[in-house]
Structures are given as C-alpha cells and as structure tokens.
Amino acid sequence: MTSFLDDLPDDELEDGPDGGDANCVVHHAELVRPLDQRLQDIRDVEEELYQEAIETLNSVACWSKINPEDGEVPPEWIATLGREAAEIRFRIAKAAWLPTAKAPVGIRVAEHVVMGIAKARALQKQPPAFAMVFVTMPSPQLEEMEVKE
C-alpha cells in the first residue's frame, strides 16, 4: 500500500524531531481492525458487564442471609469469597434492605443491564420476523366512453 507521501519529492517532506518524517501518515488499514475482531471486542465488554451485573444481583439476593443492623460480614462469605469481595457483597445485601426510594441506583442499573443483555441475546437466536401484509384496494371506477371507429 502506498500513501500520498510516496508521490511527493523528498525535499517537500519535513524531518521530525527524531529525524523521521514529521508528515508521517498511518495507513487506514493499520487503524481499522477487521469487523469480526471489533465485534468480538464488543462481545467481551458485553460479557464483562453482564457478569458484573449478575454478581451485583447475586449479592442483592443474599439480603435475607444477613441482619441489616449487624455490622459484621458473615465469616462464611469471607472464607468463600475473600475479605474484599465479601465486604462488597455485604454492602450490597445491606442496601437491598432499604426501601426502593432509598436504595442505590446501582441495583436498578444492574437489573436493567442483565435484562437488556438477556433480551438482546434471546433476540439474536430468533429467526427474523417477517410480516405479511395484504392490501386490497377497490378497482378504480372509470367513466364509460364511447368508442369511435
């Protein structure tokens, strides 16, 4: 592949601070990755968001396993998840005890993320829907005309 710089005489190119061409052009093909790689990147980000939202909702589902007035993280959570993850789960489960108006918005966001991704994945598996529409129109009424031979 060539760039427009290949057609310019060498005396029209400026030297950059490191001795290279200051007018260096990166070819378009070097910037744009193939579509399948970009789609895979999007799927990876989607999966990461989905897993984080699922973890949040799993923590919300643990609300009945704690006492909201208790400030202690359950020891079995620490043993299973580790100290940091157990504390995060405890905070989220404690927030699940709050009324809806006072609950952190993150719980609703996690719910919407899970539902949105689940719906999108379900729609991808369905065949495209085709709508068959039949339109009936009355035939035009034309005046009678005399035909002259």
Mind sketching the topology for me?
Blueprint: H1 28-31, H2 35-60, H3 75-81, H4 83-95, H5 105-125
Helix pairs in contact: 2-4, 2-5, 3-4
How would you sum up this structure, described in words?
With 149 residues, the chain is mainly alpha-helical. Helix content is 48%, strand content 0%. α2 crosses α4 (83-95) and α3 packs across α4. The protein has a domain at 40-123. The protein is elongated.
* H and E string: HHHHH
Helical element count?
A: 5
The counted number of beta strands is 0
Kindly provide the radius of gyration, computed on alpha-carbon positions and rounded to a whole number of angstroms. 32 Å
Spatial shape: elongated
* Average of pLDDT: 82
User: In which range does the helix fraction lie?
Assistant: 40-55%
Structural class: mainly alpha
- Tell me the span between the first and last alpha carbons: 73 Å
Indicate the low-confidence ranges by residue numbers: none
Q: Work out the strand percent.
A: under 5%
| Main sheet overview | none
